[in-house]
Prior knowledge:
Elements lengths: L2 H16 L18 H7 L4 H19 L2 H9 L4 H32 L8 H14 L17 H4 L2 H4 L1 H22 L13 H27 L5 E8 L13 H14 L6 E3 L13 H14 L3 E10 L5 E10 L5 E6 L39 E3 L15 E7 L6 H9 L4 E6 L9 H16 L3 E5 L5 E3 L5 E4 L6 E8 L6 H5 L2 H21 L11
Parallel strand pairs: 1-2, 2-3, 7-8, 8-9
Antiparallel strand pairs: 1-12, 3-4, 4-5, 6-7, 9-10, 10-11
Amino acid sequence: MDNARSRQILFACASGLLLPFCFPKFDLGLLAWIVLIPLHLALDQCSKRRAFWIGWLSGLVGFTGIMAWVVTAMTTYGKVPEPVSYAILLLLTSYLGLYVGLYSLAVVWLRELIPRYGIFFAPCFWVALELFRTYLLSGLPWCLLGYSQYRELDLIQVADHTGVYGISFLIVLVNVAFAELFMWIMPFFRGCHPVKLPWELLTTAAACMLLSWFYSSAVLSDRDRQNPKTFITVGVVQPNIDQAVKWDASFRDETMRTFDRLTAQLGTSADLVVWPEAATPFILEREKEYQLQLIAWAERAQAPILLGSPALRFYPDRRPYLLNSAYLLGTDGMVLGRYDKHHLVPFGEYIPLKSSLLFFLDKLVEGIGDFESGPGPTTLSFSPKSWNTERSSGSRPVKFGVAICYEVIFPDLVRQFAANGAEFLVTITNDGWFGPSSAPAQHFAMVVFRSVENHLAFARAANTGISGFIDPFGQIIDTTPLFSEQASYAMIPTRQARTFYSYYGDVFANACVIICALLCLFSYFRTKEPVMTAITPA
Length: 538
């Protein structure tokens, strides 16, 4: 192997090794602004074919570090043999690495297509590929690059127009600008060929950073000047039920006593009490005795309880199926509403193509059966007791949306709750599958962007943590530690205002896809050889 190829592989692996440090638990978000520079140095004077494989290698290394928790979920809780778990992890990260490989190929292709200025469009390809990753093969938009900045509130408010994809665009643009500047300073990386200062790219990156900062500062200043008119108090319960015994019938009463004790700790101060996903270790609608207990606890708390529980339904031919549901139980025992999880976890809650191609597989995690998808994002409502005062807005109902577990990582799905009139948002989850890995912190970080995109507050209840509250602009109000029994509450604002993103969705990301398509068309017509017609003299 020659020195040039060795150097390219080394630089590509450097980007991959650094990528996991940009996200929780490491939380070195500043690193994201330079993490792609080694990869870009590796792509200099590289063929398109080699660029793809170098990028794929970088992505493979990076996503293996980010997604290592998959082994914990499968081995500890899915009872999958450890060698098989690592093989599945490698298969998954090999797939995710393809997106970085395609981006790398695009970078080299752009440099050839439009010398000096083609590289301007590299962030568009990165965003387009993140959008494809969100939807392709059911979608896995875990740890998109923009999520690394979830703590930088004075920079990410532009996500209320662009979604998280706009922050990914900005990070890639800055990485590209720094890489080009570095190669201008160190002509060794250009094979000693003289190059011009990429001042246009540097200026563009600096301008975009300043615009994002100025806009975010203006949004946060406006927030500080305007006091929200209405608040509700939400209590969340984190029972810390061991995943190994969660569905064991012999532990059912102990589980319910834990919920009873923690709910009682909230007193009567909450307008809404939130339990985690699949909180009840049984099918709620089928257990009358436990229903009466829950009604009594809701009456004691003087607040409705939102709780996760499977729902049993039947096909027209009477075959049973399950829904992963969230019930809103009123103080009078009435079910005020139910939301059924719409976007299920492939291989966790169902097996894709099980009836045909993948009939030999079983779910990778143990549970109570396969689930079906619900009808889509629908809002729930209740009348907060704290609004029944002379100084408040009266007893009108407040609308909110519930994202169950995995759903919260899909920007457009959560956006639809806001578009349907939600005034705040709730997410319930059972991150016990992840164990003590980085996944719970990564999962929580992504909720911050759902708040910023829609400017709605979030309450999060997790079985083993992290539970907490986030304000409409991404400020983390409170969090609980992992693996602790805890009940906490906070006052969160309700808002009826809608953002550009809430109304129109992924306009920015789709615009990047269109730009990429136009560049492909330009390349096609530019390289198409003209047809010469021979003229035969008379």
